[in-house]
Amino acid sequence: MIIPARGARPERTAVLAVVAALAVPLVVAPIVAAPPAAADAPLRVHAAARGKFIGYAAGTSPLANEAAYRSVAASEFNQVTAENAMKWESTEPSDGNYTFSGADQVVAFATANNQQVHGHTLVWHSQTPGWVQGLSASAMRTAMQDHIATVVGRYANNASLVSWDVVNEVFEENGNLRSSFWYNTLGSSYIADAFRYARAADSNARLCINDYNVEGINAKSTAMYNLVRQLRADGVPVDCVGFQGHLAIQYGFPSQFRENLDRFAALGVQVRITELDIRMQMPRDSTKDATQATYYRNVVQGCLAVTACAGVTIWGFTDKYSWVPDVFSGEGAALPWDANYSTKPAYTAIHDALDDGSGPAPDTTPPTTPGTPAASGVTSSGLSLSWTASSDAVGVAGYDVLRATGASGGSFAVVGTPSSASFVDSGLAASTTYRYQVRARDAAGNVSSLSSVASVTTTAGGGGPGPSSCRVAYTISPWGGSPGFTAGLVLTNTGTSSLSGWTLAFSLPSGQAITPPGWSATWSQSGQAVTATPLSWNSTLAPGGSTTIGFNGTHTGGTSEPTTFTVGGSSCTVV
Ligand code: G3I
């Protein structure tokens, strides 16, 4: 992929050293970190020491009226986003009549407390007045240009306001562009236009696209990735990508969060977590609090691990003022402070994750090596494995089960990630030898050595469920102007029994190669032979069930498609 060269932009004078560093276009010199923080220092001190921001979404009413709110806001955070005060309905409620009282209030508080401000949001389908929504195409484009010029222009010379959400939530969950009044009236061009209008109004501010349910690798985040890549290839000034982070403990932590940040960062954009909150089904209890704390820690650690990640903004900070209970019936307690401004385990988790080392030492010790897997219940298409569990100083989080086909040769790929020391493999070919190894992981990401190898041969066919039946739809999308492509595959189980721990294999045409990591599967390539093994969430396909996986690749001129796909050695129908 070719990204147009971007000239360095003059930077505004920033209120914080870290702010100044963050304003430099990315792929940049490392951020100059502040001095190490004392262990009990507030979040903002630890964040600055790591070269990141830690922020909150501000409500104008408590900011004006509550000393306790102001105290936490000022002492704990070095970044702020107005929760509602910069939205269109707040700043231009009727055509051409601008009101900035709430927006100015947030900016003034931020300036007084050395906090950088992120402007939220210019073009959104929600909280935009009815008068905009009913305009003709030409009038709507003019209104958008005027709104962006006026709102962004107001703060263009303000040292605190460093970035804007230019467009917000432009995708449907399936990755299509959202059928909003913007899209339905103006078509997809409104997105590029909005960015260009914003750049014209402030040549220094970072310009972001922001969305929810894009934290992991999925159809929506992949659509956002492709849009950002295309916009930048077209010279549209997209500088940054915001991952909102409205999570819930009952839905699990987003799959491949870190890998997702990494792939966007590789496009040359800044990434940031913009609206983090982690809700739960009420009532709260200590188990839910602990899970929530782990999720907060995971998010902060993910951002710390990615150089291009500027920081994390929490959507509010106290449960006293959270949008969650109003929208999700029976859910709440999503923030690190409770309604009485007492901190929760989530606060400690964020604090410890940001700590520069003066707090508890990080866990760098891997679990012990697990025992050699032993097979039982071997049939023509499946078997059970169990092994002696690993131990770990903190705790074993789970295992990776790796499988290679054949008595020798071939490469091992992960086919399962059980949380305890056993695994059921299925979808295997009859009379075939498979080799298995396992390794253990802990919560800090330390991985043990691989166990010894166990070889198992499935029985001859006839008694068991038989080889898997599958269908593959393969779509290749060449990139204009560069020797790359995106390949999307839909794998469907057309059999009558569940397909678990599947391995999809095919041969890439000559001259084509995968650019790791791909998404929604673990991909590997040896010569032209490619295998994809599932992640935990798509490792079992019920009869009729399907999963969408994919990868980016390079080619040397040809973008023909593979012709044969197998699962567990059996050919799939190709459509
Ligand atoms: O200001 C009026 C007030 O006059 C009226 O009495 C009251 C009655 O309900 O409503 C007030 O407006 C509310 C507004 O927040 C300001 O408090 C709206 O009803 C309420 O719907 C609105 O909710 C906001 C929501 O965006 C709107 O979609 C939430 O506070 C805000 O946290 C939320 O934030 C969004 C991000 O902007 C984008 N990403 C998702 C995130 C969560 O939904």
Explain how this protein is built.
With 575 residues, the chain is an alpha/beta fold. It folds into three domains: 43-354, Glycosidases (TIM Barrel, Alpha-Beta Barrel), CATH 3.20.20; 374-457, Immunoglobulin-like; 470-574, Sandwich (Immunoglobulin-like). The strands form six sheets. An eight-stranded parallel beta barrel has the order 1-2-3-4-5-6-8-9, surrounded by five helices. The longest helix is centred in the middle third of the chain and has 20 residues, at 286-305. It binds ligand G3I. Ligand G3I binds at residues 83-84, 126-127, 168, 212, 244, 275, 323.
Features:
TIM Barrel, Immunoglobulin-like, disordered N terminus, binds ligand G3I, 5-stranded mixed β-sheet, 15 helices, 575 residues, alpha/beta, globular
